[in-house]
């Protein structure tokens, strides 16, 4: 039996570009990390190509998967719009295929992370359906239903941060009022903790782990809003597992304990129906890289 080939995953974000060679079991064999150029645009393009070429020349990769912030076209070829990267209509597939001569697949980073947790992480025992909610600077997500990643007609499925949590509430960057993003994100966490003198989420998380009452109270507020959103998603989609990931999830119990407590109250007994398990993500900030690589490996022979 022929062994599954290696794939290269690229995680492109506002602060870093990480490349990794990933085997069929989701194990990362080698990585490279570079800072994202402040100028973005063409400078970022050069960094992405350099990282891919470096790893591609050292390992026999059969495909490249790109997990990127921003909106990706339905063909999984072009980054249509990524504010923090300075990209608009960026032909990432064509760029990397010309540079590395292997098939390339481009995916939104939250979708790629959801796929990684389904295949190799916190939801690897699920057979059918997983919802991942990512809680970082903003709130995002990805859905796996029927064993397949759900992208939607315009590739924006899973944008749970823009469900309305408070009718007529805080103005969101998307143009709507009261989005979950405004109440359950890293930005919201800092806003809740500002009276305690905290200026960023890292400081709030560190203080919460030490038992600071302002910081733990801020995490509880985030957890309460997030739990309500999760309960609504579960009622709609009935997944086997819900995974909570992103930077805030790395705070551990200070987020997960109140989240689970409120989730149980919000969801009730659902008329006696079984409840999905709600779990913390396991793959951390490398999930997008691993998921993108696996998706590229699986789709390398698919028609375009």
Question: In terms of topology, how is this protein built?
Answer:
Layout: E1 6-12, E2 16-22, E3 28-35, H1 41-58, E4 61-68, E5 71-72, E6 79-82, E7 87-90, H2 92-100, E8 104-108, H3 109-119, E9 130-135, E10 139-145, E11 148-150, H4 181-184, H5 186-193, H6 201-209, H7 213-237, E12 241-245, H8 253-267, E13 277-280, H9 287-299
Parallel strand pairs: 1-4, 4-8, 9-12, 12-13
Antiparallel strand pairs: 1-2, 2-3, 5-6, 6-7, 9-10, 10-11
- Mass-distribution shape: globular
> What pattern of helices and strands is seen along the backbone?
EEEHEEEEHEHEEEHHHHEHEH
Number of helices: 9
Strand content: 15-25%
Distance between termini?
27 Å
Protein name: Glucokinase
Family: Belongs to the ROK (NagC/XylR) family.
GO molecular function, one term: kinase activity
Keywords: Kinase, Transferase
Account of the 3D structure:
This protein has 304 residues and is α/β, with parallel strands linked by helices. It has two domains: 6-112 and 286-299, Nucleotidyltransferase, domain 5 (2-Layer Sandwich); 127-282, Nucleotidyltransferase, domain 5 (2-Layer Sandwich). It is 37% helix and 23% strand. The chain contains nine helices and 13 strands. The protein has helices spanning 41-58, 92-100, 109-119, 181-184, 186-193, 201-209, 213-237, 253-267, 287-299, and strands at 6-12, 16-22, 28-35, 61-68, 71-72, 79-82, 87-90, 104-108, 130-135, 139-145, 148-150, 241-245, 277-280. The strands form three sheets. Strands 3-2-1-4-8 form a five-stranded mixed β-sheet. A five-stranded mixed β-sheet has the order 11-10-9-12-13, sandwiched between helices. It has a three-stranded antiparallel β-sheet with strand order 5-6-7, with no helix packed on it. β9 (130-135) and β10 (139-145) form a beta hairpin. The chain is globular, with a radius of gyration of 19 Å. The two termini are 27 Å apart. The model has no long low-confidence stretch (mean pLDDT 92). This is Glucokinase. Belongs to the ROK (NagC/XylR) family. InterPro entries: ATPase_NBD (IPR043129), ROK (IPR000600), ROK_cs (IPR049874).
